[in-house]
Amino acid sequence: MPGRGQVARPVVEDRFARDTAVTPVAPGRYRGRVDPGWAVVDGAAPNGGYLLALAARAMQRQTGAHPDPVSLTGHFLHPPQPGDVDVEVELVRSGGRHTTVAARLLQDDRECVRLLGAFGDLATARGPERVDLSPPDLPAIEACIDVTTAAVERAAAGALPSFPIQERFDHRQPAELATWALGRPTGRGEMGGYLRFADAAEATAMDPLGLLVVADCFAPAVFNTTGRTSWVPTIELTVQLRGHPAPGYLAAAFTTRAITRGYLEEDGQVWDAEGNLVALSRQLALAPR
User: Fold this and answer.
1) Which residues pair with residue 34 across a beta bridge?
2) Does the predicted model carry a pTM greater than 0.90?
3) What pLDDT band is residue 12 in, cutting at 50, 70 and 90?
4) Per-residue pLDDT tens for 130-158?
């Protein structure tokens, strides 16, 4: 695998950095703002991965030399509305290699997300390596559909509205994985494609916290299983970061293999432009009805 012994890459200020910024307001308490541009539904329902990233900004303030959430789990209790939120952070344990941090994301003192994370430093991490996974087998980017532009154009023509979070990314998908939007699901619980932030310069590496959003920003894989496209509420989402992404498009693949009693899992892999595995994810969600 290329890209071993990765070093930290410069990250420039962009909309994601601004929309996940936090400021201290009291010891262990930070103020942030849920921006409506990261919503799954216009005006409400902020994306779960975006909420993890916003909270992770505050959690980083307690981790010292360990800036990267090598594992971050969020349980979603109540969807916040666009506007101010507070993040209460508790340092659970500080060690030589990892710092464990707990957090609560609150709005009007109502708990919306409960989080627990282990933070480390992926830029300096060393140890044994073996990867029995491969990047997703995707056609060339040029052969994929620009699904973000297509969604914006459909919305402008009076068809289905474009989801706000979709416009935060430059999404490119193989045609066969996008047919669910035309009422022709593949019958397999698969979703994925290429993506980067819509405002990213070609030579800019994604902020590692952006991977928390990438793990939750594609249409649910279950849409290609059943063809049902109603709300899929996330109950719990865990994302593991394995490296800082190289500049360029990321390649992501998500699968749902079991829908039982109204619950489903979605497993994800995210690879960078140099073929490095940079994130793994799993979430538990309710199946669309």
Assistant:
1) 83
2) yes
3) very low
4) 999 999 999 999 999 998 888 888 778 87
Can you tell me the distance from the alpha carbon of 140 to that of 27, in angstroms, rounded to the nearest whole number? 49
- Domains of the chain, earliest start first: 15-123+140-286 (2.40.160.210)
Q: Give CA–CA dist 28/26, Å, rounded.
A: 6
283, 216 Cβ separation under 8 angstroms: yes
Burial classification of residue 216, based on how many CB atoms lie within 10 Å of its CB (0-12 exposed, 13-18 middle, 19 or more buried)? buried
Query: Which residue spans within the chain are E strands per DSSP?
Result: 23-26, 29-34, 39-41, 44-46, 68-76, 83-94, 99-107, 110-120, 145-146, 169-173, 190-197, 234-241, 250-255, 259-260, 263-271, 277-286
- Between β-strands 259-260 and 263-271, what pairing exists: parallel, antiparallel or unpaired? antiparallel
Lowest mean pLDDT among 63-72, 180-189, 207-216, 240-249: 180-189
